[in-house]
Design goal:
This protein is of the alpha/beta class. It has one domain: FAD/NAD(P)-binding domain (3-Layer(bba) Sandwich). The chain contains four helices and eleven strands; from the N terminus they run βαβββαββββαβββα. Helix 1 runs parallel beside helix 2 and helix 1 runs parallel beside helix 4. The longest helix is centred in the last third of the chain and has 20 residues. The termini are far apart.
């Protein structure tokens, strides 16, 4: 049983997973590796003054999430069902199943899984994004325990924005789970002070 299952491993999903795993939540990312970032050349993502190609951004995002403690699984989630009041079962195309207490959907431009799982969707607002998950300001869907982040939740398709939205929703989920506002900041060590004579 995972604390959090994240469906989609692009910038929103990997970012969310980095935060949930660092917060001590047992996290799995299930990714079909079919996101639009794989086909992108990105010249406007902060931290890459020479630009970055989409495959490198996706692969490095998954690596960062894994180093934070998330489990990365290749697979396409084709079923999402709530079991009782407390948890979810996710089924992949190849017959595997995963159990999780909460789910974050980072599906990019494909709302089919959300729709078939009974999660409320609405018309998209971004160009060429027809349908998105209807979320509240924190990223919660109409199904308790299911959150959405990134393009599927109405954020701009720009990778810097979807990554930030994944982090934002993850922090909201962590805060809700732990009952207090979550902050994840590390500080550089102070330089050693020079010895006094």
């Amino acid at each position: 049983m995972y604390d959090v299952a994240i469906v989609g491993g692009g910038p929103a999903g990997a970012s969310a997973a980095t935060f949930t795993a660092r917060a001590g939540l047992q996290t799995v990312v299930i990714d079909a590796d079919a996101g639009m970032t794989r086909r992108a050349l990105i010249n406007n993502h902060l931290g890459f003054p020479e630009g970055v190609n989409g495959p490198d951004l996706v692969d490095n995002g998954k690596l960062q999430a894994a180093r934070a403690g998330a489990e990365i699984v290749d697979g396409k989630v084709v079923g999402l069902q709530k079991r009782g009041d407390e948890d979810f079962v996710l089924q992949t195309e190849d017959g595997k199943s995963f159990e999780a207490k909460q789910v974050i959907l980072t599906l990019g431009a494909n709302a089919e899984l959300a729709r078939t799982a009974g999660i409320r969707t609405k018309e998209g607002t971004e160009p060429r994004i027809r349908e998105i998950v209807d979320v509240d300001p924190q990223g919660r869907s109409n199904v308790s325990g299911v959150w959405a982040a990134g393009t599927i939740a109405g954020a701009s398709v720009h990778t810097i924005i979807t990554a930030g939205d994944g982090a934002r929703v993850a922090i909201n989920l962590i805060s809700s789970t732990k009952g207090e506002r979550h902050v994840d900041h590390d500080a550089m060590p102070r330089p050693a002070e020079a010895p006094t004579a």
